[in-house]
């Protein structure tokens, strides 16, 4: 389960992306033109542009290498490139396909994804409308096959407790379904660390549960946040 620390914190505490290491390729043939779509998880603009550069080298004889990417939990970075196709007929339809991809009923939160469509021209002009449909359908078809995961932000909270009661409290927290993120020790206390969804309601509920389990003696001290991949059932 990949874990990454990120900063600064975003408004979103959960979004959807490609499973780690799951680059995907899919090809469509439309009126003798080949449209090869490559999807890859990318965390920043540098890696997104590196993907495009690498595919230009790999498919050096192709006429176009059009691209679109969305980055960040809030999807704040959005870019597209027509790469020589008529303006607005390739990159923007590709970006729209990423933006509008439903990852749940009524949910469109796909991010940290780059799409590149490599086109080998087949000799038949598609027209502006045909190009828009071809590039949009190429990305949409690839997304239908792509393995997705949820990215969730967790707040790590330290819980200092006396050594004598640490084992019992940790067992009770685990039994209650809480995720432990580690344990450390100092001269007076054992410090339990909980990994909790970084949302006010959930944090407040965890604090209340901790108070009940410890008869009010233990408190949560918020620390850093981490992002983890969570499988989609």
Based on the model shown, name its key terms:
233 residues, alpha+beta, 6-stranded antiparallel β-sheet, 5 helices, elongated
Describe the structure.
It is a single chain. With 233 residues, the protein is α+β, with helices and mostly antiparallel strands. Helix content is 30%, strand content 37%. Strands 1, 2, 8, 9, 10 and 11 form a six-stranded antiparallel sheet that branches. The chain has a five-stranded antiparallel sheet with strand order 3-4-7-5-6, sandwiched between helices. A hairpin with a 5-residue loop joins strand 5 and strand 6. The model is unreliable at 1-7 (pLDDT under 50).
Topology overview:
Layout: E1 3-4, E2 14-18, E3 24-30, E4 33-41, H1 45-58, E5 64-71, E6 77-81, H2 91-99, E7 113-120, H3 127-145, E8 148-162, H4 163-175, E9 179-185, E10 189-197, H5 200-213, E11 221-231
Antiparallel strand pairs: 1-11, 2-8, 3-4, 4-7, 5-6, 5-7, 8-10, 8-11, 9-10
Structural class: alpha+beta
Give the % helix: 25-40%
Mean pLDDT: 93
**What is the makeup of the main sheet?**
6 strands, antiparallel
Using only C-alpha atoms, the radius of gyration works out to: 23 Å
Note the total helix count. 5
Query: Which geometry do the CA atoms define?
Result: elongated
Number of strands: 11
Low-pLDDT stretches are: 1-7
Oligomer: single chain
Terminal residue distance: 15 Å
What is the percentage of strand-forming residues?
35-45%
Give the SSE order as H and E letters. EEEEHEEHEHEHEEHE
